[in-house]
């Protein structure tokens, strides 16, 4: 029998992005697509543990690992310059 996927709550994206927020958004995106963790890991070309670390917002993951997950799930990051000239990640 197929595993039931429950849609995870979407994080508050008005907060500055950090690994925890990105992980929550990636989990929300995966569950919104009705994908299991195993399916998402396979789609991203990552081990189940590496993908799980992304969703848990582990701070010491490789940037390449994060971007594999973002790319496979169709999530894009942009940089927006603020009025003070500082760069904010969105």
TrEMBL record:
SUPFAM superfamilies tied to this protein: lambda repressor-like DNA-binding domains
Annotated SMART domains: HTH_XRE (SM00530)
All copies of domain HTH cro/C1-type, residue ranges: 26-77
Pfam family of the protein (one): HTH_3
Official protein name in the record: Transcriptional regulator
Species of origin: Lacimicrobium alkaliphilum
């Amino acid at each position: 029998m197929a595993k039931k996927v429950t849609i995870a709550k979407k994080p508050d994206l008005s907060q500055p992005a950090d690994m925890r927020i990105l992980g929550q958004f990636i989990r929300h995106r995966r569950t919104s697509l009705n994908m299991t963790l195993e399916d998402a890991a396979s789609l991203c070309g990552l081990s189940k543990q590496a993908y799980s670390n992304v969703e848990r917002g582990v701070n010491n993951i490789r940037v390449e690992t994060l971007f594999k997950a973002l790319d496979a799930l169709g999530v894009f990051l942009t940089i927006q310059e603020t009025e003070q000239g500082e760069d904010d990640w969105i």
